[in-house]
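Hi everyone, sorry if this is the wrong subforum. Our group has a chain we'd like a structural model of before ordering constructs, and none of us has done structure prediction before. Sequence below.
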Amino acid sequence: MSPISTEPFWQDLRRQLPYPLRPASLVVMGVLSLGHAADFVPVVGIVLQLVVWIALYRYAFDCLRSSADGQTGPPRAQFVLDDSSGWALVWLQTIFFTANLIGFLGFGLIGGIPVAIALSLALPGAIMTLAIDESLAQALNPAAWRAIFVRIGRPYIVIATLQFLFNVLTRYAGSVSIPTVPPLVTLVGLYFVAHYLVVLSFHLMGQLIWQNHEALGHEPESVRALRRANAGPDDEVLEEVEELVRDGDPQVARELIAHHLLSNVGSEVLHIEYRKLLALSGQLESQLSHGRDWIGTLLAQGNDRRAADVARECLTLDPAFELSSPDQVARVAAKAAAENWTAVALKLVSGFHRRYPKHRDIPRNYLLAARLLADRMGKVGEARALLDQLRRGYPDHPLAADIATYRSTLDTAETSTTRVAG
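Answer:
Right subforum, don't worry. Here is the predicted structure as tokens:
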């Protein structure tokens, strides 16, 4: 399958909504929704309901892990009894449910509501931590939830809201009645909607992990595959690093890679592992510094696309990120534009004339910016103003003719559009 979109899901929500309705998950949700008919069966129904919820959560967790690896579609149902992560999720949900119940029993309805809201906010962080670390103890660590929230930001609130809506819906699903509609049909239908919300919210959590995998310290399957495919001269160092991490000494592992990179170019896999360790330890400035150095190495190797990709990662971590040399900006920005990473290209050239007022690439960078503003963002007025500044400030520059030609092209296009409209 192809990787999922890197766009924030709230900008692409329409495309995300059908995810649970694809055949693999639709079958699971349909069958499990029918299982809720057990509500009408005394005693035995309680056990069957428990089985249904366990099966649903374990499948939803599979969806989360699949999406965290960059897959676009839901996985087939594989309810493996010895899946320790799946059972850890069941225990995690049980602990949160128990804490919620204790909140209402101990503080009453009024006092229990804030507890329920707090738990709803914390639950996505706990689930995502479990998916990343595969440790129930770590998933119950409030510091881990906070780290997830800080690194993801606003999208986390959307996920938590979906979780809260699901809790409300399932709480009242069994008591809702619709005139002229048989109670069984109403019950199954409402639980189907609840299952849809569960699968969708878990998919979105997985997508957020995949989009922020470097900041969260998660290694997607695609990265692991790259590491295996690119096995080479750094294998010995990587093996030692992996052993140190397993032994609980990531700091020494990080220092080992840093020392190795001082005298070696280092493979892409080694650089990725180093950035992962930096992210795990929260060393943002070191991640950005390494990004600058690695971009220089990649450009020297002629790997402009990967250099632009690393610049994109660094700008995600810090929108104020700058390359180590002004001479690199035009080249990296041009490649980012060629890859349709418009925002990355514009961020790289933004303010270039203020930082380097005498640099020869000012016209080149801002001509690129004008093209992106007009052709891709429809901001023709801003593009014309930028081109006019270039024409006044650099009349003898080698790109002066290109600037004038593109300025004339914008005027011609506007005139043609006005005539058609008239």
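For your construct planning: Confidence is low (pLDDT under 50) at residues 1-6, 418-422. DSSP finds 21 helices and no strands in the chain.
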